[in-house]
Write a structure and sequence with these properties.
about 10% strand; 15 helices; mainly alpha; two-stranded antiparallel ribbon
């Protein structure tokens, strides 16, 4: 009788232990959400064991042991990726491990507007804390690095494609510049290069002309007409007479273009030198590149700003002088 009672009690105790173990395991493996959103920086080389302990302290995990065991059993503990992770929603240890292995990190944003110069791009990257200004400058002006990216030029001016980029924080300076040049190559496909306009421009010349168009107007619909003026001048061997190129060649330009500067010889003074300048003066967007490759059909040789962001186009010098008198001299009097 006593033996049966003992056996029943032992069976009951074992059942309770089993239930408690299963309940505890289920509790440990069930989804857990931190009390508030957690941003966790996983540094390169950090072990899963340390990550698990820190996530437990932050309330992302109930137990660090569960994540460590999962990593060991699945043999994925050494495959976790560095970066900044955001934890806010309930997640199981298995789901957390999946994210760490997949590198599901928070991405940062970098927007490069059309018409930014190489220096402006570098300054923006540095100001946002994504890279060192001097390292970026050295790379962008290193002919060997430039050539390694498939660019036949002295620098990356013109080839840092304007775009909004999303990327993992902590990437190095070379990777950032490669990312922008890769986007340039992706955007400037073979079809665009086939259409090089009446001047049969090569890639570097095309980018150079597109950069001038980009700096001359902010109106996309005007770009083919601006392009036609420059193509017409190139064909007739008339100097381009573009103020933005002159400005690019002036060190520490103060915003006021003077007659003396227009008469000072630099490689970028298109008032004094016929043809295109030696290279791009900014990083053009796709619209300017397309306009450079496929200009509008026109007989225009001149244009002048109307003062509202648009331009008046003229085919003869007499027409142009009248337009200048109407739009620029009139505005100065006002």
């Amino acid at each position: 009788m006593m033996g049966k009672l003992f056996f029943r009690l032992l069976l009951l105790l074992l059942s309770l232990i089993l239930l408690a173990t299963l309940g505890g395991a289920y509790w440990l493996m069930s989804p857990q959400a931190p009390a508030q959103t957690v941003f966790y920086q996983l540094k390169p080389g950090t072990s899963l064991s340390r990550v698990a302990g820190e996530l437990e302290e932050l309330g992302v995990l109930r137990s660090a042991l569960t994540l460590k065991l999962l990593g060991r059993l699945s043999e994925r503990g050494g495959a976790i990726q560095s970066g900044t992770y955001r934890f806010s929603e309930p997640a199981t240890p298995e789901q957390i491990l999946e994210r760490l292995v997949a590198g599901d990190v928070e991405k940062v944003s970098l927007t490069i507007p059309e018409g930014f110069t190489q220096q402006q791009v570098i300054d923006r990257i540095a100001e946002l804390g994504y890279g060192d200004r001097e390292k970026l400058r050295q790379l962008a002006e290193d002919p060997e690095f430039v050539r390694s990216l498939g660019i036949e030029a002295q620098s990356l001016e013109g080839y840092l494609f304007p775009e909004t980029y999303l990327f993992n924080p902590g990437v190095d300076e070379a990777a950032l510049l490669k990312m922008m040049v890769r986007q340039f190559h992706h955007s400037v496909d073979g079809q665009l290069l086939v259409k090089t306009g009446p001047q049969h421009l090569d890639l570097h010349q095309l980018v150079t002309l597109a950069s001038i168009i980009e700096k001359e107007t902010g109106l996309v619909e005007e770009m083919p007409l601006i392009s036609s003026v420059f193509h017409n001048r190139l064909r007739r061997k008339i100097p381009l007479q573009s103020d933005p190129t002159v400005i690019y060649g002036i060190a520490d330009f103060d915003g006021n273009l003077t007659r003396k500067q227009l008469e000072t010889l630099t490689p970028y003074n298109t008032y004094l030198i016929r043809g295109l300048p030696p290279g791009p003066i900014a990083n053009p967007g796709l619209a300017a590149l397309k306009a450079a490759a496929a200009p509008a059909s026109s007989s225009f040789l001149y244009f002048v700003a109307r003062g509202d962001g648009s331009h008046q186009f003229s085919a003869t010098l007499a027409e142009h002088n009248r337009a200048v008198s109407r739009y620029q001299l009139h505005r100065r009097r006002q």
